[in-house]
Design brief:
The chain has helices at 2-17, 73-81, 102-107, 124-134, 144-150, 166-176, 192-198; strands at 27-38, 47-58, 88-93, 96-97, 109-112, 184-187. The protein is globular, with a radius of gyration of 17 Å. The two termini are 21 Å apart. 32% of the residues lie in helices and 19% in strands. The longest helix is centred in the first third of the chain and has 16 residues, at 2-17. Helix 1 (2-17) runs antiparallel to helix 5. The chain is α+β, with helices and mostly antiparallel strands and 208 residues long. The strands form two sheets. It has a four-stranded antiparallel beta sheet with strand order 2-1-3-4. The chain has a two-stranded parallel ribbon with strand order 5-6. The structure holds adenosine-5'-diphosphate (ADP) and magnesium ion.
Length: 208
């Protein structure tokens, strides 16, 4: 049941990308010689987190970034999301360079954060509308209703977020990452719950 809800989300997601299909790039994310060195601090030495990554993630693929704690997974995703500055190298997201076209590059990503961070006194509908506003999505192009339905939260649209179960909150986090119809979705949770509720399909890009 939960899986089919998320499958529905994938359809909404793909539907949103339909008009873009003709001009979809072959490579969704590309990193070239990506290095990150965290500077030394009084209590910690310099740390090389990424040693020079070369990576191409094709459009339409599901790509898993696996590795032990401290391998650099979060650092990589945070660089993509514009939260960490890289030290060296180049990154292209949906063919946009994060240095020269950071806004467009970020707009192509929907990142589901590791931790649940929502106002418990907002409703799911208000949560999505607020997020859509942050992204500057015009009212006429908003798809909050459709996204909530697709994620199996159709009957919770006007409930308080605090009344949702843990799994529903996690699905709402996925919904939040989709309001601007990004062609690339990155669920970053370490929790098995999110991974199983997404069934891997949340990580799909709109090439299907
Ligand atoms: N803000 C930071 N300052 C200094 N070192 C950091 C910082 N963030 C992460 N690191 C270090 O970078 C390495 C990679 O961390 P991280 O990207 O969080 O790995 P992962 O997500 O794969 O567990 C670790 O050694 C970690 O301690
Ligand atoms: Mg991490």
């Amino acid at each position: 049941m939960r899986d089919s809800s998320i499958g529905g989300a994938a359809e909404v997601f793909q539907g949103a990308c339909m008009s873009e299909r003709a001009k979809m790039p072959e490579i969704a994310i590309e990193a070239r010689g990506l290095r990150k060195v965290y500077a030394a601090a009084p209590r910690s030495p310099e740390k090389v987190a990424l040693k020079g990554i070369d990576l191409k993630i094709p459009t339409g693929s599901i790509f898993g970034l696996l590795g032990p704690n401290g391998a650099g997974k979060s650092t990589f995703i945070n660089i993509l999301a514009g939260l960490v500055n890289k030290t060296e190298g180049e990154v292209l997201i949906w063919e946009k360079n994060i240095d020269t076209h950071s806004r467009e590059a970020r707009a192509a990503l929907g990142v589901v954060p590791q931790e649940i961070n929502m106002d418990p006194f907002f409703t799911p509908m208000e949560t999505l509308e607020l997020m859509a506003g942050f992204y500057g999505v015009p009212k006429s192009e908003r798809r909050s209703d459709e996204i909530l339905d697709a994620l199996g939260l159709g009957d919770k649209k006007q409930a308080y977020v605090r009344q949702l179960s843990g799994g529903m909150k996690r699905r709402l986090m996925v919904a939040k990452a989709m309001v601007h119809a990004p062609p690339i979705l990155i669920p970053t949770s370490r929790r098995r719950a999110l991974m199983s509720s997404c069934g891997g399909r949340c990580g799909n890009t709109c090439g299907g």
